[in-house]
Amino acid sequence: MKPEVFFLLNAHDPTAQVCRVVRRMLTRGSTVAICANSERLSLIDRALWSADAQSFVPHCRSSVPEPLRRYTPVLLYEEREAAPPAETLIHLGATLAPGWSGFERVVEIVGDNPSSVAEARQLWRGYTAHGCKPQHHDLSLRAGGADA
Fold first, then answer.
1. Its domain of life (predicted)?
2. Within its chain, how far is the Cα of 125 from the centroid?
3. Where are the alpha helices (DSSP H) in the chain?
4. Percent of the chain as helix, strand, coil, to the nearest 5
């Protein structure tokens, strides 16, 4: 079965958008893997620690020892690593994430700049070439244009 694929377009702050999607997925009981390059993962790691003063998002890198990974609902992994087990993949990258087809859903976070849009077009083509039917949601059309 192919995963559901969603593109969240025009994210003014992709890192903050990742935090919002993670919180939404966790409230639904979903486990989450986040795939990006090392620099972006460091930003996301810090943001997950400080995104909301009233909550904690348990997360770790997928490279930590197995006992910790097994009990952590959000795993961060680099594009060059194997995908960890999770239900939802949140991806920020220019090429299809390793192991993307093994997830129930894939969420592509697309920035509001021309290079992000060009990368998203390539990703869209990649997913459709694999038989997926991606859906898109333009975040700039939300109330006040805010990422929601």
1. Bacteria
2. 18
3. 14-27, 38-50, 66-70, 114-129
4. 40, 25, 35
Would you tell me how many other CB atoms lie within 10 Å of the CB of residue 16?
17
CA–CA gap between residue 120 and residue 93 (Å, rounded) = 9
Tell me the sheet residues that pair with 88: 32, 105
Nearest C-alpha neighbor of 61 from the set 42, 80, 39: 42
Residue 107 in tokens? 């969420």
Q: For the chain, which residues make up each domain, given as ranges?
A: 4-142
pLDDT tens-digit series, residues 3-54: 999 999 999 999 999 999 999 999 999 999 999 999 999 999 999 988 666 7
Tokens representing residue 24 in the block: 């939404």
| Residue-wise pLDDT tens digits, 41-79 | 999 999 998 866 677 788 999 988 888 888 899 999 998
What CATH number does the domain located at 4-142 have? 3.40.50.10110
